[in-house]
Here is the input.
Amino acid sequence: MNPIKISQAVEKDGVPVVCATCVKYWKARDQNIPIPRCISTDCSSPIGGGTFQDYEGIIPDFSIWCFRCGNKPDAYLFIKGSEKKFGICNEHLEDAKSLVPSGVDVNLLVNRFYIKDGKVSPLNPYVNAKYWKKTAIEQIQEAEKYFNEKKLKKFEV
Here is the structure.
């Protein structure tokens, strides 16, 4: 993997450092799949209730850096039932607290916690699914699924 391209993906495109160091992310770039998507269909960050379960990359331990930007972690996210912990800096922890991902099983979200200064807290204690909004990427994915199901021709922009 090219360190300059990894850095550009994180800084310019806003891709989490974990994703930018994953083989599947770069295979997606080779296949012209839109950023930030990768070729995995079953992988997500702890913000989305996952554990980067399909990750194939160079990071052996997700707790040593902020999984978003690669900086020193100030806190740790974890998913109940998983032994993995995920480093996160203060800036991205505040972002994670305010993010409400859509298209994610609500039952997974109640299992998300963070540890800061030795205190365990729920990541999003007041999640209300009826207020979720779809991201642009999720709308694209839905459109692609619709086109594939209907076997309609896709067009290039």
Observations:
- Residues 125-132 have pLDDT under 50 and may be disordered.
- The longest strand covers residues 75-79.
